[in-house]
């Protein structure tokens, strides 16, 4: 009979290796964006589609919280909703993302309507919400651990946007500035929780597979953007067309 002794150090290294190999900072679209190679319309397409992901994060977290029986876990996790929704009007990550939308010339009402979102973006993000709502608690929490790898991409994005794009300033990129302090708090709790609860090989495999799933959700969104808006552009029916949803 095979025995298994949990090893937190090697398991954490396994999770980090997933990010090293699969995180979407390696996607060609991000290389294009951060180097200043995106056209204004390609930036707008990214803002529109990424908004759909941002707007569903608090919905995902609320669905998760609805089945959490541990008050300590609820107290920690609900901060994620406040980070995105804010604690009053005019605050929170979603509001800051819509300021970015205005900065690139988009009407925030159009962006928040999600009318122009790519079909693949919608499918990927909705699959992530269902995953966190329906899967066991351990993989649901583990899927959030892409935040382990987020600070680097935020730093690269801040530097790249400020260097290459006229719209970038302290107001329009404030979403990313805030995530530099918010994401580490989220992931510190989530990582410790996963390490504490992944006590069998099956647990560790489930957590690792959940993290892989989340990297695929993020990667699929960028694949959709690249296919639709980077040469040769192939914009699917119903998705945002350049010239739509602009500020008047």
Model description:
The structure is a single chain. It is built from eleven helices and no strands. It has 248 residues and is mainly alpha-helical. The protein has one domain: Up-down Bundle (Heme Oxygenase, Chain A), CATH 1.20.910. Helix 1 runs parallel beside helix 11, helix 3 packs parallel to helix 7 and helix 5 packs antiparallel against helix 10. The mean pLDDT is 95. GO terms for molecular function: pyrroloquinoline-quinone synthase activity. Belongs to the PqqC family.
Question: What would the keywords be for this entry?
Answer:
248 residues, mainly alpha, Heme Oxygenase, Chain A, 11 helices, 69% helix, globular, EC 1.3.3.11, Haem_Oase-like_multi-hlx, PQQ biosynthesis, Thiaminase-2/PQQC
**CATH homologous superfamily (4th level) name:** Heme oxygenase-like
Structural class: mainly alpha
Terminal-residue CA separation: 70 Å
Strand content: under 5%
C-alpha geometry = globular
Q: H/E series, N to C?
A: HHHHHHHHHHH
Which architecture does the CATH hierarchy give at level 2?
Up-down Bundle
Q: How does the major sheet shape up? A: none
Number of strands: 0
Radius of gyration: 18 Å
CATH topology: Heme Oxygenase, Chain A
Q: What low-confidence regions span 5 or more consecutive residues with pLDDT below 50?
A: none
Helical region count?
A: 11
How helix-rich are the residues, as a percent range? 55-70%
């Amino acid at each position: 009979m095979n025995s298994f002794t949990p090893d937190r150090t090697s398991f954490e290294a396994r999770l980090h290796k997933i990010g090293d190999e699969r995180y979407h900072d390696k996607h060609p679209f991000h290389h294009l964006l951060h180097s200043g190679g995106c056209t204004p319309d390609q930036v707008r397409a990214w803002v529109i589609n990424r908004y759909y992901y941002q707007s569903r994060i608090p919905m995902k977290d609320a669905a998760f919280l609805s089945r959490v029986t541990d008050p300590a876990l609820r107290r920690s996790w609900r901060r994620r909703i406040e980070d995105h929704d804010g604690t009053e009007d005019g605050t929170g990550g979603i509001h800051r993302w819509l300021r970015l939308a205005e900065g690139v010339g988009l009407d925030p009402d159009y962006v928040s309507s999600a009318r122009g979102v790519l079909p693949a973006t919608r499918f990927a993000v909705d699959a992530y919400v269902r995953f966190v709502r329906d899967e066991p608690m351990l993989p649901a929490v583990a899927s959030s651990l892409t935040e382990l790898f987020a600070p680097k991409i935020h730093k690269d994005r801040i530097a790249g946007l400020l260097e290459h794009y006229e719209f970038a300033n302290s107001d329009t990129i404030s979403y990313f500035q805030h995530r530099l302090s918010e994401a580490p708090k989220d992931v510190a709790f989530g990582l410790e929780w996963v390490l504490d609860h992944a006590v069998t090989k099956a647990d560790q495999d489930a957590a690792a597979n959940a993290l892989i799933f989340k990297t695929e959700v993020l990667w699929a969104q960028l694949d959709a953007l690249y296919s639709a808006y980077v040469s040769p552009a192939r914009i699917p029916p119903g998705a945002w067309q350049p010239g739509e949803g602009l500020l008047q």
